[in-house]
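Course assignment 3, question 2. Fill in each field.
Student: A.L.
Task: Predict the tertiary structure for the chain below.
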Amino acid sequence: MLKDFTLLVPVRDRHYNLKNVSTYYSDLDSNKLIVDSSTTPYDDIKFLEANGFDYVYLGPMTYVDKMNKVYKEIIETEIVLDCADDDIVIKNSIKESVEFLRDNPEYSACDGEILWLDSRSNSLFVKHPNKFFGPLK
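Answer field:
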């Protein structure tokens, strides 16, 4: 298990992504949390729980208010991957990033290449080539 790590999936009014994202990460052995600030709660929480996710419905609120509440009152782990409900992170890179952060406490975050698929033009773009941020001084 990835100890002291949480996969955080914030969602607002896009419940249609939750089955795909929870299925994809179902075998990730870690804390997994979906926080929802939609106008209504998700209607298939049992499916999320069966895939190892905890689900918290916060009611409508801004992204900033939601994330403040999540980090101050809900998250208890030292390392968090904040992953949008329509993003997919390669699971091996999650493990690599967690190990990097544990081995390099002077770093506060790390990042990998972000690939963006534009389905309208059938094009693939490398959006962000940086790997690591830091060290902080």
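Instructor remarks: The beta strands are 5-11, 31-36, 54-57, 79-82, 109-110, 114-118, 123-128, 132-133. The helical segments are 18-24, 45-50, 63-74, 91-103.
Grade: pending
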